[in-house]
Amino acid sequence: MTTMLVAAALALTPSPDAGARAPNAEATAAVLSAFKAYQAALLRKDGPACARLVDSATLAYYQRMRDLALTGGAAEIKKLPMLDKVMIVRMRHQVPVAEIKQMDGGRMLGYGVSQGWIGDKGAQAVFGDIDVNGDVASGAFMIDGKPTSTRMGLRNERGAWRINLLSVFPASNFLFKKLQKESGKPEDDFVLSLVGTLAGTPVPDTIWNPRK
User: Fold this and answer.
1) What is the pTM of this model?
2) How is residue 14 annotated by DSSP?
3) Would you say residue 121 lies in a domain?
4) Contact residues for 181 (Cβ-Cβ < 8 A; gap 6+)
């Protein structure tokens, strides 16, 4: 779901004209290879593979979303960015509590991939210029052969380049806010409506509080 929303948001974020530094060719090739490996895993809906290909910050984020899905109260969750709300509400609505308890952040991410929550739109994206700065890198997404301002971040951890999904979350939140304003609904009502549409079943307002 996250990658699908990012892909849709890309067209809304034009790229600045500033040129990027020319990175080391070997590092550039390694970054591109890591991105393509993640794309291939998305296409296969291979959740465990995707979890192995993301960085520690991404895993920590999904761990926090998993923890909040189990224990977060309405007041705490409603203060979060819209993307976080959607993730938590969807976990509560579609994943049995007993299953969530058995997952860590990596397994939660993997579950989303295997269930198609993280769509294959990201697997169809194309990297443009790649910027490498030490153990941090990013690649510009391309739309119709033109770069956008949205960049996928990567970090070199444990001897390999790994995807940082948090780097594209601002684009997803931007799109969510745009869709919410167009709907005319209050933000929390929009979240319930969106998750209900994605799940194919209505979401009760009681979902804001943890399930027993």
Assistant:
1) 0.87
2) B
3) yes
4) none
d(CA 160, CA 79): 35
Residue 74: which domain range? 2-13+24-208
d(CA 61, CA 58): 5
Q: What percent of the chain has pLDDT over 70?
A: 86
d(CA 25, CA 52): 24
- Identify the CA nearest to 107 among candidates 91, 120, 83, 89: 91
Given a contact cutoff of 8 angstroms between Cβ atoms, the answer to whether 125 and 141 are in contact is yes
Would strands 146-157 and 136-143 be described as parallel, antiparallel, or unpaired? antiparallel
Judge whether 18 lies within some domain: no
Choose among 125, 140, 134: nearest CA to 19. 140
Q: Tens of pLDDT along 118-139? A: 765 556 678 888 999 999 999 9
Number of domains in the chain: 1
What mean pLDDT is predicted for residues 55-69?
98
Is pLDDT at 113 greater than 80 in this prediction? yes
Q: Flag whether 183 is in a domain.
A: yes
- Asked if residue 54 has pLDDT above 90, the reply is yes
Q: 132 with 23: CB under 8 angstroms?
A: yes
